[in-house]
Amino acid sequence: MRRRLFAVLTLGGWLACVEALFTGAGLARADQVGQQSASVPLSAGDQALVAQIETYLNGLTALTANFLQVAADGSTRTGKAWLQRPGKMRFEYDPPDPQLLVAGFGLLVYHDPQLDQTTNIPLSATPLGILLAQHVVLSGAVTITNLQRNPGEIDVTLIRTGKASAGSLTLVFGTDPLELRQWKVLDAQARTTQVSLYDIAPGGPFPDSLFTFQGQSPIQSGG
């Protein structure tokens, strides 16, 4: 169960966010940035819950999985994912989609062979880096912009502090016991993408070559 939840947490939804950045979706409108960047006041009970979530996330490790991504328009895509904390991930789409997303050695690389285009961005500049970090801390460099408690459910929305335009992530946890149920990515156009993974298997350590695109040189590890 913990491996399944780790996969759901850290992988496919960020692909939608990264695609928005790489395909010219642009920065969020000013009102969206303001809404996404404002921190939410946390009570003592909220802070205890956040600490519990951090402990839960930091207890999760490496895996392989198949993924199903559902876009805002209802379209679906599938593929295979590999993940190894800290800082490494590979996302391959099933045919006929040829795109590839690789995170490793401080870089997030998105390759689209149909456009003959490869784009690099520092992993630390993306929301993905929050969850691929060596140690997940949901404060300081990370801002919680929303925390909601609903019957049987907890929703936590995260951004990198001061970098709301890079995207936001909402984690949806079930309660009793705490477990991740779903996550949602909100892109700059106010479109939401939901992702789930299946056929989860423990893995690692994986070779560094799995997280390196072509001639990319290692820069640094971690998020």
Q: So how many helices?
A: 5
Return the average pLDDT rounded to an integer: 76
What's the helical proportion of residues?
10-25%
CATH architecture: Clam
Strand order of the largest sheet: 6-5-4-3-2-1-11-10-9-8-7
Distance from N terminus to C terminus (CA atoms, Å) equals 24 Å
Beta-strand content bin: 35-45%
Query: N-to-C SSE series?
Result: HHHHEEEEEEHEEEEE
Would you give an account of this structure?
The protein is an alpha+beta fold and 223 residues long. Helix content is 21%, strand content 37%. Strands 6-5-4-3-2-1-11-10-9-8-7 form an eleven-stranded antiparallel beta sheet. The model is unreliable at 1-14, 20-35 and 215-223 (pLDDT under 50).
Question: Would you spell out the secondary-structure blueprint of this structure?
Answer:
Layout: H1 2-10, H2 13-22, H3 30-37, H4 44-58, E1 63-70, E2 76-84, E3 88-93, E4 100-104, E5 107-112, E6 117-122, H5 128-132, E7 142-150, E8 153-160, E9 168-174, E10 179-186, E11 192-202
Short description:
The protein is of the alpha+beta class and 223 residues long. It has a single domain (2-202), classed as Lipoprotein localisation LolA/LolB/LppX (outer membrane lipoprotein receptor (LolB), chain A). It is 21% helix and 37% strand.
Task: Output the keywords.
223 residues, alpha+beta, outer membrane lipoprotein receptor (LolB), chain A, 11-stranded antiparallel β-sheet, disordered N terminus, disordered C terminus
